[in-house]
Design brief:
About 30% of the residues lie in helices and about 25% in strands. By secondary structure, it is of the alpha/beta class. It has a single domain, classed as Rossmann fold. The structure holds 1-O-phosphono-alpha-D-ribofuranose (R1P) and uracil (URA). GO terms for molecular function: purine-nucleoside phosphorylase activity; uridine phosphorylase activity. Keywords: Glycosyltransferase, Transferase. Its EC number is 2.4.2.3.
């Protein structure tokens, strides 16, 4: 077993389920545990990264908050996989978007996470590695959304280290050309999770996000206080996928 210091997740070996939902925000983890899970147990409070395990429709499911950024989610993913044997990692985050076809509240599933963060440069050098979501999980999410009459948009997303890039401090070539590629969402952890999971043959990962604010339709933005609780469609789809995986992936 690889030893990680400092630990981000400290609990007993069998406390965490094979399928883990991963919101960045610890209070979103708390909301899901309190509103969707039966008999939830808080198993982690290290660094305020709440982690809960409970039962959803008879299936054991965990919800572990990751904090913000690719480094945090990668460390969480490695610890979940190496120390706790987790197999299915599903991010459930929030995002911005500069795509005119996307609106605040839309639920998105990332096909591939185009990476503006330094993590892949460090690992792959000039080799253009493209972090992609697991096909089986994406297919399950897509079918689950359809079965439940929920809208789910599947497409490429962007992952960067800056939440609010300031136009006066970032060169315009960094910002503008990318908006022409019609990424469906823009967040800060997706590529980290997909790269971390790609190191393990038997681990699957998927990135789901809900658009919480929009670069074109700024008047639609979700108030901060509602960002823990508002994205229930994404939560339901992810929990149903976790349940299906527990039932044998049907
Ligand atoms: O809502 P979460 O999951 O934290 O995700 C998004 O929200 C944070 C920025 O507000 C970043 O972590 C971004 O990726
Ligand atoms: O990463 C994020 C998350 C929410 N909204 C954004 O604009 N970016």
């Amino acid at each position: 077993m690889v030893e990680f210091l400092p630990d981000m997740i400290c609990t007993e070996p069998d406390m965490i389920a094979e399928t883990v939902l991963l919101p960045g925000d610890p209070l979103r983890a708390k909301y899901i545990a309190e509103h969707f899970l039966e008999r939830p147990v808080l198993y982690n409070t290290v660094r305020g990264l709440y982690g809960y395990t409970g039962w959803y429709r008879g299936s054991k499911v965990s919800v572990q908050s990751t904090g913000m950024g690719t480094t945090c989610i990668m460390e969480c993913a490695y610890q979940l996989i190496e120390k706790y044997g987790c197999k299915n990692l599903i991010r459930i985050g929030t995002s911005g978007s500069d795509n005119p076809d996307i609106h605040v509240g839309d639920t998105i599933c990332s096909l591939a996470s185009s990476n503006l963060s330094n993590i892949t440069v460090e690992e792959f050098g000039t080799y253009d590695y493209i972090p992609t979501g697991d096909f089986k999980l994406i297919k399950m999410a897509s079918e689950t959304a359809k079965e439940n009459h929920l809208r789910l948009l599947v497409g490429p997303t962007k992952c960067g280290d800056m939440l609010y890039p300031e136009t006066d401090s970032v060169p315009s070539f960094f910002l503008n050309p990318l908006s022409a590629y019609r990424f469906v969402g823009d967040e800060m952890e997706g590529a980290g999770l997909l790269v971390a999971a790609s190191h393990y043959e038997d681990v699957r990962a998927m990135v789901m996000i809900t658009c919480s604010d929009h670069q074109i339709y700024g008047d639609e933005d979700t108030p901060l206080a509602l960002r823990e609780s508002k994205y229930t469609n994404m939560m339901k789809i992810a929990l149903e996928v976790a349940h299906k995986l527990d039932e044998g992936g049907k």
